[in-house]
């Protein structure tokens, strides 16, 4: 039984890693209608997939009784804890691989990935802070339509948002002059949504993981898709607050080419631009398009999550009870 579970996890994980991007593309018409749920499903799905891959080792530890590489009391404790966590005591088979490796390797991989991701996120935070200071240099802090913003004296029409600790919303005087009252309100609501919905944290987390696992098609697809859904989620908030015409008008003006577009599109900031989003605002999808792939993704991830939890819980319970 443990070997069967391990094989199912391995095959299922490999299949989702390869075909998951295709499912995400097919589900896009449904996902764009529920962007905040889509963000949770996509990011959560990636984390569930990683957890399921790491769970293969603990299942294999239940399946085989390999050579003992520890000695004395350490070996006794390890064997007792494994026995306390194993619901398949009668299903063990002989193995040439030491059982302890099935536990140590996933733990080391998880710890290494966690440390590497955290280091990447901290590095991104430092870069974001430096970029924010450079962009906001000489800006004037003021309040527009109920939002605290930094206004830069520039004819370029742009708006962008740094994390709140780095200054939040930044607007150019060119944007303030070019946008009418409703369009400016739409831009401010869009940028505020990035802050309120913690989009910078989500973006940093995905980037931190993808920096080390981008060779996995699923992770690469998530890293590519998330920025689009973050913008759509912010658009959705602005549309509900101000209306579609004002938001579309603002996007059309913000999308005009700028000689210094690289500044406004710096990865440290989330920015309001992009005519590719206008079609979704003007002609949103209707009907059941994308619903079947979406349901398939949700059902698969739910099953994968349940199996992973069922594997990890016995180990956690054994550790809490002292392997008694």
UniProtKB/TrEMBL annotation:
Binds 1 zinc ion per subunit. One of its GO terms (biological process) is proteolysis. Its cofactor is Zn(2+). The keyword Metal-binding applies. It comes from the Bacteria. Keywords: Hydrolase, Membrane, Metal-binding, Metalloprotease, Protease, Transmembrane, Transmembrane helix, Zinc. This is M56 family metallopeptidase. It comes from Microbacterium maritypicum (Microbacterium liquefaciens).
């Amino acid at each position: 039984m443990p070997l069967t579970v391990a094989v199912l996890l391995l095959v299922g994980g490999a299949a989702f890693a390869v075909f998951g991007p295709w499912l995400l593309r097919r589900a896009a018409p449904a996902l764009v209608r529920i962007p905040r749920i889509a963000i949770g499903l996509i990011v959560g799905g990636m984390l569930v997939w990683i957890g399921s891959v790491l769970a293969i080792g603990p299942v294999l530890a239940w399946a085989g009784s390999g050579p003992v590489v520890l000695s004395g009391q350490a070996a006794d404790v390890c064997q007792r804890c494994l026995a306390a966590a194993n619901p398949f005591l009668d299903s063990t088979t002989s193995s040439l691989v030491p059982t302890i490796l099935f536990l140590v390797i996933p733990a080391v991989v998880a710890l290494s990935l966690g440390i590497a991701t955290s280091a990447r996120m901290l590095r991104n935070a430092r870069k974001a802070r430096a970029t924010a200071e450079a962009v906001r240099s000489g800006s004037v802090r003021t309040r527009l339509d109920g939002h605290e913003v930094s206004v830069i004296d520039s004819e370029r029409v742009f708006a962008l948002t740094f994390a709140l600790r780095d200054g939040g919303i930044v607007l150019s005087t060119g944007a303030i002059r070019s946008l009418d009252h409703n369009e400016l309100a739409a831009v401010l609501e869009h940028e505020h949504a990035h802050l309120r919905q913690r989009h910078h944290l989500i973006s940093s987390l995905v980037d931190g993981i993808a920096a080390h696992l981008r060779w996995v098609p699923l992770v690469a697809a998530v890293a590519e898709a998330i920025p689009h859904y973050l913008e759509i989620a912010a658009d959705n908030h602005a549309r509900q607050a101000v209306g579609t015409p004002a938001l579309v008008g603002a996007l059309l003006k913000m999308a005009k080419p700028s000689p210094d577009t690289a500044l406004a599109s710096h990865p440290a900031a989330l920015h309001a631009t992009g005519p590719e989003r206008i079609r979704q605002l003007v002609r949103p999808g209707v009907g059941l398009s994308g619903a079947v792939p979406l349901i398939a993704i949700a059902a698969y991830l739910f099953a994968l999550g349940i199996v992973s939890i069922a594997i990890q819980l016995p180990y956690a319970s054994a550790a809490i009870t002292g392997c008694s």
